[in-house]
Amino acid sequence: MKDVRVRFAPSPTGYLHIGGLRTALYNYLFAKKNNGKFILRIEDTDQTRLVEGAIENLIDSLQWAGIEYDEGVFVEDHKVVQKGDHGPYIQSQRLDIYKKHVDQLIESGHAYYCFCSKERLDQVRDEQKIKGLVPKYDGLCRSIPIEEAKKRVANGEECVVRLKLPHNRDIKFYDIVRGEIVINTKDIDDQVLLKSDGFPTYHMAVVVDDHLMDITHIVRGEEWLPSTPKHVFLYEAFGWEKPEYVHLPTVLNKDRKKLSKRQGDVSVDDFKARGYLPEGLINYLALVGWSPEDNEEIMSMDEMVEKFSFDRVAKTGGIFDKDKLDWVNGHYIRSSSVERISKLAIPYLVEAGYIDEKFAQENTSWIETLVDTVKESVSYISEIPEKVKFIFDEDVEMEEDAQELLGGEQIPQLFNAIVGELKTIEEIDMDYAKSFMKTIQKSTGIKGKNLYMPTRAAITGSVHGPEMVNIIYLLGKDKIIKRVEKLLNK
Ligand code: GLU
Question: Which CATH class is domain 337-383?
Answer without folding.
Answer: mainly alpha
